[in-house]
Amino acid sequence: MLGGISIWQLLIVFVIVILIFGTKKLRNLGGDLGGAVKGFKNAINEDPKKADEEKDAAQQASIVHDEKDATFESTTEKSAAEKQKDQ
Predict the structure, then answer these.
(1) Is there a single domain that holds both residue 40 and residue 56?
(2) Number of folded domains that form the chain
(3) By the 8 A CB rule, do 26 and 18 touch?
(4) Is residue 12 scored above 90 in pLDDT?
(5) pLDDT digits over 63-85, tens only?
(6) 35: domain range?
(7) Which end of the chain is more exposed for a tag (fewer CB within 10 A), N or C?
(8) Are 26 and 17 in contact (CB under 8 A)?
(9) How many Å apart are CA 29 and CA 36, to the nearest integer?
(10) Cβ neighbour number for residue 26 with a 10 Å cutoff
(11) For the whole model, what pTM was predicted?
(12) How far apart are CA 1 and CA 24, in angstroms?
C-alpha cells in the first residue's frame, strides 16, 4: 500500500499500546466507551414527550422532598424553642 497503513503497522501500534497501558485499563476504557455510546443512543431514540413526563415527575418529587425538609426544620425549631421556654 502506498501511503496507507498496513495491517502489520496496526498490529505493532496495538502491541505498544497494550505494553504501555495494560489490558485492564484498556478493558475499563472499552467498557466506559461502550456505556457512553449506549447512553448516547438511548438519548437519541428517547421519546421527547416521555422525557418531559419524566422531568415533570422528577420536579414533583423534588418539591415534595423540599416540603418534607421544610416541615422537619420547622418542627425542630419549634421543639428547640419549647426546650428554651422550659429552662
Answers:
(1) no
(2) 2
(3) yes
(4) yes
(5) 655 555 555 555 555 565 566 66
(6) 7-45
(7) C
(8) yes
(9) 11
(10) 14
(11) 0.36
(12) 33
